[in-house]
Amino acid sequence: MIDKIKEELGKVFYPGKTNSVVKEGVIGSITIDEGVVSIELLMKEDNANAIQILQKSIPSAVKKIEGVKDVNLIINLPKHNQEPPKLQHIRYILATTSGKGGVGKSTVSVNLAISLSKFGYKVGLLDADIYGPNIPRMMGIEGIPVAIDPKNKDKILPIVKYGVKIISIGSMIPKDAAVIWRGPLINQVIKQFLNDVTWDELDFLIVDLPPGTGDAQLTLAQEAKVSGGIIVTTPQTVALDDAAKAHDFFVKLKVPVVGVIENMSYFVCPKCGYRADIFSRGGGKTFAQNVKIPFLGEIPIDIQIREGGDEGSPVSVSNPNSVVAKAFADAARSIIETLKNA
């Protein structure tokens, strides 16, 4: 079957080139396990667009072969001799992702950042969700423009709120303006947010990624030495299916996974104390156990979380002694312990 696979791959053109992926020399090892084909991609360039295209074109070609059930791509990016000097002043870069939208990833990112800051760490928060930047509203910085760094005209200053340094495209465009950009522009913005912002010394830079495994995720993995990925999910099966894809993304790009945070885990009635598992129960913990990564904690559904996000005063600030604020703080502690033991 491997010969047939190579034959089909010989028909797949490398994006922007006239040669096939075989002639371009980007195909590495090919293995087959019970109908699942794993193909190693030996990328010669940090080209997020090319990778995204190949993630579709290669599986599409190979799945035509009888007996092929699924196709996994193992992406090996070019090795850099050293970490970019511009990022050496950031101790840990953490990427929060979800695989799908609507699970509260930005809410988790915001409250983790504030919790870490309260522990005494120097924290930055980079909003990499260019199409749907919610961080400015959640952090109460809507309408506050970014400023040029007077000490370095080539850089911009992050906005500081609740002890956290923040950068978001939402602070640079009109409030209700849609961002209608193709991938290359998204990539450029992420690069600039990493390299052209005066972050100074940071213990943690939390990067709030958009849903999925697209341009922003690839650019971050290529441009920075990501210390770890944090997967946010709800207990329900649909969310866990996409969490598995997020985990697979980190594994393929050789990004360590810090762990899983289960959001909207349960709801406790404030009047009678009844616990309702609205989105099922224990899915995040079971997923973490299955893929052998740490379970960082569960966050209950609470109206204070929604109110805090809408009003620009996250629950970790507005009600730090609440059950949910303590749950975010516990998750932050788990992250610290996991990184220390890595």
From TrEMBL:
Molecular function terms, GO-annotated: 4 iron, 4 sulfur cluster binding; ATP binding; ATP hydrolysis activity; ATP-dependent FeS chaperone activity; metal ion binding
Pfam families on file: ParA
Keyword annotations from UniProtKB, A to Z: ATP-binding, Hydrolase, Iron, Iron-sulfur, Metal-binding, Nucleotide-binding
Subunit field text: Homodimer.
Function of the molecule: Binds and transfers iron-sulfur (Fe-S) clusters to target apoproteins. Can hydrolyze ATP.
Annotated family: Belongs to the Mrp/NBP35 ATP-binding proteins family.
Protein's name according to its UniProt entry: Iron-sulfur cluster carrier protein
